[in-house]
Amino acid sequence: MKTSTFLRLALVGVAVTAMAACAPRRAVEGAVPTAPTGPQYPTAPTAPVTGTPVGSVMPGSEQDFVVNVGDRVYFDLNQYQIRPEAFARLDAQAQWLQRYPQVTVRIEGNADERGTREYNLALGARRAESVRNYLVDRGIPAGRIDTISYGKERPIAEGSNEAAWARNRNAHTAIVSGAPR
Predict the structure, then answer these.
(1) Which residues in the chain show pLDDT less than 70?
(2) 55 domain residue, yes or no
(3) Which residue among 5, 58, 86, 164 has its CA within the 20 to 30 Å range from the CA of 171?
(4) What is the reported pTM?
Protein backbone atom coordinates (compact mmCIF):
# COMPACT_ATOMS: atom_id res chain seq x y z
CA MET A 1 0.00 0.00 0.00
CA LYS A 2 2.88 2.39 0.74
CA THR A 3 4.33 1.70 -2.74
CA SER A 4 0.97 2.61 -4.32
CA THR A 5 0.84 5.90 -2.42
CA PHE A 6 4.43 6.70 -3.31
CA LEU A 7 3.74 5.96 -7.00
CA ARG A 8 0.70 8.25 -6.99
CA LEU A 9 2.67 11.06 -5.39
CA ALA A 10 5.49 10.60 -7.90
CA LEU A 11 3.05 10.79 -10.83
CA VAL A 12 1.45 13.94 -9.41
CA GLY A 13 4.92 15.44 -9.00
CA VAL A 14 5.80 14.70 -12.61
CA ALA A 15 2.54 16.24 -13.84
CA VAL A 16 3.01 19.38 -11.73
CA THR A 17 6.59 19.76 -12.95
CA ALA A 18 5.51 19.43 -16.59
CA MET A 19 2.78 22.03 -16.17
CA ALA A 20 5.11 24.41 -14.32
CA ALA A 21 7.65 24.15 -17.13
CA CYS A 22 4.98 25.40 -19.54
CA ALA A 23 3.99 28.36 -17.36
CA PRO A 24 4.33 31.75 -19.01
CA ARG A 25 7.31 33.85 -18.04
CA ARG A 26 6.65 37.28 -16.64
CA ALA A 27 7.73 40.17 -18.76
CA VAL A 28 10.16 42.58 -17.21
CA GLU A 29 8.46 45.94 -16.79
CA GLY A 30 9.84 48.47 -19.24
CA ALA A 31 11.60 45.82 -21.32
CA VAL A 32 11.32 46.11 -25.08
CA PRO A 33 10.44 42.83 -26.81
CA THR A 34 12.92 41.74 -29.42
CA ALA A 35 12.48 39.60 -32.48
CA PRO A 36 13.98 36.12 -32.37
CA THR A 37 17.47 36.02 -33.79
CA GLY A 38 17.62 32.28 -34.35
CA PRO A 39 16.79 30.37 -37.51
CA GLN A 40 14.14 31.56 -39.90
CA TYR A 41 10.80 30.15 -38.85
CA PRO A 42 8.46 28.70 -41.42
CA THR A 43 5.71 30.90 -42.66
CA ALA A 44 2.34 29.74 -43.74
CA PRO A 45 1.74 29.14 -47.43
CA THR A 46 1.38 32.32 -49.43
CA ALA A 47 -2.18 31.66 -50.60
CA PRO A 48 -4.39 34.74 -50.44
CA VAL A 49 -6.39 35.27 -47.26
CA THR A 50 -9.35 36.82 -49.05
CA GLY A 51 -11.44 33.68 -49.11
CA THR A 52 -11.82 33.93 -52.88
CA PRO A 53 -11.84 30.42 -54.32
CA VAL A 54 -8.80 29.45 -56.36
CA GLY A 55 -9.42 27.33 -59.46
CA SER A 56 -11.99 24.63 -58.90
CA VAL A 57 -12.07 24.85 -55.10
CA MET A 58 -15.62 24.63 -53.73
CA PRO A 59 -16.45 27.60 -51.47
CA GLY A 60 -16.85 26.54 -47.84
CA SER A 61 -14.99 23.27 -48.35
CA GLU A 62 -12.01 22.03 -46.39
CA GLN A 63 -9.88 22.62 -49.49
CA ASP A 64 -11.15 26.23 -49.66
CA PHE A 65 -10.08 26.71 -46.04
CA VAL A 66 -6.62 25.23 -46.55
CA VAL A 67 -5.88 26.91 -49.91
CA ASN A 68 -7.46 30.33 -49.41
CA VAL A 69 -7.06 30.86 -45.66
CA GLY A 70 -4.39 28.52 -44.30
CA ASP A 71 -4.76 25.94 -41.59
CA ARG A 72 -1.54 26.18 -39.57
CA VAL A 73 0.33 28.71 -37.43
CA TYR A 74 3.79 28.27 -35.93
CA PHE A 75 5.30 28.91 -32.51
CA ASP A 76 8.69 29.73 -31.07
CA LEU A 77 10.63 27.18 -29.04
CA ASN A 78 8.93 26.36 -25.72
CA GLN A 79 6.32 29.07 -26.32
CA TYR A 80 2.57 29.08 -26.75
CA GLN A 81 2.04 32.81 -27.30
CA ILE A 82 0.81 33.54 -30.81
CA ARG A 83 3.50 35.18 -32.93
CA PRO A 84 2.57 38.52 -34.57
CA GLU A 85 2.97 37.11 -38.08
CA ALA A 86 0.21 34.58 -37.28
CA PHE A 87 -2.42 37.25 -36.54
CA ALA A 88 -3.37 37.74 -40.21
CA ARG A 89 -3.76 33.99 -40.70
CA LEU A 90 -5.94 33.62 -37.60
CA ASP A 91 -8.00 36.70 -38.51
CA ALA A 92 -8.63 35.10 -41.91
CA GLN A 93 -9.64 31.85 -40.19
CA ALA A 94 -12.10 33.77 -38.00
CA GLN A 95 -13.59 35.53 -41.04
CA TRP A 96 -13.94 32.24 -42.90
CA LEU A 97 -15.58 30.57 -39.90
CA GLN A 98 -18.01 33.50 -39.58
CA ARG A 99 -18.89 33.09 -43.25
CA TYR A 100 -19.59 29.35 -42.76
CA PRO A 101 -21.33 29.07 -39.37
CA GLN A 102 -22.16 25.37 -39.82
CA VAL A 103 -18.46 24.40 -39.75
CA THR A 104 -16.84 23.08 -36.59
CA VAL A 105 -13.08 22.81 -36.13
CA ARG A 106 -10.50 21.13 -33.95
CA ILE A 107 -7.29 22.94 -33.05
CA GLU A 108 -4.44 20.43 -32.86
CA GLY A 109 -1.45 21.55 -30.81
CA ASN A 110 1.93 20.14 -31.79
CA ALA A 111 5.51 20.30 -30.55
CA ASP A 112 8.92 19.30 -31.82
CA GLU A 113 10.63 16.09 -30.73
CA ARG A 114 12.71 17.65 -27.97
CA GLY A 115 11.47 17.38 -24.40
CA THR A 116 9.52 14.67 -22.65
CA ARG A 117 6.23 13.32 -23.89
CA GLU A 118 4.40 14.90 -20.93
CA TYR A 119 6.02 18.30 -21.43
CA ASN A 120 5.19 18.34 -25.14
CA LEU A 121 1.58 17.24 -24.56
CA ALA A 122 1.13 20.11 -22.09
CA LEU A 123 2.81 22.59 -24.45
CA GLY A 124 0.70 21.39 -27.41
CA ALA A 125 -2.45 21.82 -25.32
CA ARG A 126 -1.49 25.40 -24.47
CA ARG A 127 -0.76 26.17 -28.12
CA ALA A 128 -4.14 24.81 -29.19
CA GLU A 129 -5.87 26.75 -26.43
CA SER A 130 -4.09 29.99 -27.45
CA VAL A 131 -5.44 29.65 -30.98
CA ARG A 132 -8.90 28.73 -29.70
CA ASN A 133 -8.98 31.78 -27.43
CA TYR A 134 -7.88 34.02 -30.30
CA LEU A 135 -10.71 32.76 -32.53
CA VAL A 136 -13.27 33.04 -29.71
CA ASP A 137 -12.11 36.61 -29.05
CA ARG A 138 -12.87 37.31 -32.73
CA GLY A 139 -16.47 36.15 -32.39
CA ILE A 140 -16.38 32.43 -33.15
CA PRO A 141 -18.60 30.56 -30.67
CA ALA A 142 -16.53 28.42 -28.31
CA GLY A 143 -18.83 25.46 -28.93
CA ARG A 144 -17.63 25.25 -32.54
CA ILE A 145 -13.99 24.77 -31.54
CA ASP A 146 -12.46 21.71 -29.86
CA THR A 147 -8.81 21.39 -28.94
CA ILE A 148 -6.44 18.45 -28.67
CA SER A 149 -2.72 18.10 -28.10
CA TYR A 150 -0.63 15.64 -30.03
CA GLY A 151 2.60 16.84 -28.45
CA LYS A 152 5.48 15.41 -30.46
CA GLU A 153 3.49 12.41 -31.71
CA ARG A 154 2.48 13.76 -35.16
CA PRO A 155 5.40 15.59 -36.76
CA ILE A 156 4.83 17.17 -40.17
CA ALA A 157 8.57 17.41 -40.90
CA GLU A 158 11.00 14.55 -40.48
CA GLY A 159 14.46 15.23 -39.16
CA SER A 160 16.28 16.38 -36.07
CA ASN A 161 17.35 19.85 -37.08
CA GLU A 162 16.19 23.45 -36.63
CA ALA A 163 14.15 23.50 -39.85
CA ALA A 164 12.18 20.36 -38.94
CA TRP A 165 11.72 21.45 -35.33
CA ALA A 166 10.41 24.87 -36.40
CA ARG A 167 7.80 23.27 -38.70
CA ASN A 168 6.69 20.83 -36.01
CA ARG A 169 5.98 23.58 -33.45
CA ASN A 170 2.50 24.45 -34.69
CA ALA A 171 -1.23 24.56 -34.16
CA HIS A 172 -3.27 23.03 -36.96
CA THR A 173 -6.90 24.03 -37.50
CA ALA A 174 -8.71 20.97 -38.83
CA ILE A 175 -12.28 21.05 -40.10
CA VAL A 176 -14.32 18.45 -38.25
CA SER A 177 -17.79 18.86 -39.75
CA GLY A 178 -20.10 21.11 -41.72
CA ALA A 179 -17.94 21.67 -44.80
CA PRO A 180 -18.79 20.11 -48.16
CA ARG A 181 -16.26 17.56 -49.33
Answers:
(1) 1-55
(2) yes
(3) 58
(4) 0.71
